[in-house]
Amino acid sequence: MDEYGNTGEGRATRRDEAVRAAVEQGLLGPDSPIVGLLDVTGIRESAAELRAAFAEVTAPGTPVLHAFAVKATPLVPVLRLLREEGIGAEVASPGELALARAAGLSPAQTVLDSPAKTPAELREALALGIAVNADNPQELDRIDGLVRSAVSRSPLGIRVNPQVGGGSIGATSTATATSKFGVALRDEGAREWVVRAYLDRPWLSRLHAHTGSQGIPLSLMTQGVAETYALAEEINRRIGRPQIDTIDIGGGLPVNFASDVTAPTYAEYARALRDAVPGLFDGRYGLVTEFGRSLLAKHGTIVARVEYAKSAGGRAVAVTHAGVQVATRTVYVPGSWPLRITAYDGKGRPKSGPEVVQDVAGPACFAGDLLAEGRALPLLDQGDYAAALDTGAYYFAHHYAYNSLARPGIYGFVPDRAGGARFATVRDPQTLASIVAESGGAHAGALTTLHAPGSR
Ligand SMILES: *Cc1c(COP(=O)(O)O)cnc(C)c1O
């Protein structure tokens, strides 16, 4: 149970109703054996919780932009829904910026953070007035040139890495000593370089850090923000005026993948920040946040049909249509990214019965393509459905084209009044024609007509 007395029960009920309704309405079936489902009610609730958590700890009138990290769920209708809930966008590539713009997000609601921005990307961002955080001294040089050549409304800042350390998952630990992101603050001379950069550039008004994602303890995230705040204070003191007016604290709140309960909550994090860094909330600084996984993960479900149920070496194996193409991290690094699996029968009703240790396998042609290995579940049978929970971020929206498996359709749902669900298409299932086109179909003869001089 979380602090609001929320056991996640509403969430589980909505999910069960949506799975059954998806089968009844034919979104799921023998000919469409895998879908991604998004709980619109849950997404709206998380957005509201985020806004309320920071409203509670900030001084009245503090400008706060919650910019959703688009990479977590890069789907235009999701960005539009979040926009309606007062959430902006943090983008880190030309593609993500295009998605944010397609969703109708304004430059003032958008922050650009990519580690490898080209000159053209920087020029476009500054022309649009989008906030940019420079990752390194060379990027700041490029921005210098652009600022000299044209007026821009873009709020500009520098990303720092407070080097407070990593968490339990190396790949999502962004504040280790050697992380590739930002200016490594504890390196020799780096802090002084950052202070100088602001002294020399009166237009640098923001400071940014994103000190980790899944696997980082709250205390370490808080420490990263505290060190970023201390640096902003030092810079403003040295300059003698509050030149840094906004601190971007990044995202990274971890997600509980073990049950339907949200833990930690945004409220817990916001209060921990206020206790550790009270000055950040006294009204002298505007705030930007960049949460991704914590806004969407718990609102997504992959549902896949069990095509075959078999047995190998005494182990029951359910061969489903969900594997590495939709759960890439889980399949390749199962120890770090375990997913809960629930079993549904052929009509989409929760399956009961004695639990049997079984493998839930995907459709890809390599032995390790398992959503779950040795998991105790009611025995999955041919025509049943297996659901992978908490997959709303960094899963089905992150298709991996192994075996040319088609991207599944994604549907948002809300409960209807009759114990079922209403659906809206978020993304159509990929067609075979699209797979061929994306695989060079228009260039079928390209390689046979290419000859080295004199070879023929
Ligand atoms: C990935 C990323 C985020 C979001 O991280 P989550 O763990 O999904 O909250 C925020 N900011 C930056 C700069 C990122 O790279």
TrEMBL record:
One Pfam family of this chain: Orn_Arg_deC_N
Full protein name: Diaminopimelate decarboxylase
Family, similarity comment: Belongs to the Orn/Lys/Arg decarboxylase class-II family.
Positions of the Orn/DAP/Arg decarboxylase 2 N-terminal domain: 62-296
Keywords: Pyridoxal phosphate
Organism: Streptomyces doebereineriae
Source organism superkingdom: Bacteria
Cofactor(s), by name: pyridoxal 5'-phosphate
SUPFAM superfamilies: Alanine racemase C-terminal domain-like (SSF50621), PLP-binding barrel (SSF51419)
Annotated InterPro entries: Ala_racemase/Decarboxylase_C (IPR009006), De-COase2_C (IPR022643), De-COase2_CS (IPR022657), De-COase2_N (IPR022644), Orn/DAP/Arg_de-COase (IPR000183), PLP-binding_barrel (IPR029066)
Domain Orn/DAP/Arg decarboxylase 2 C-terminal positions: 298-392
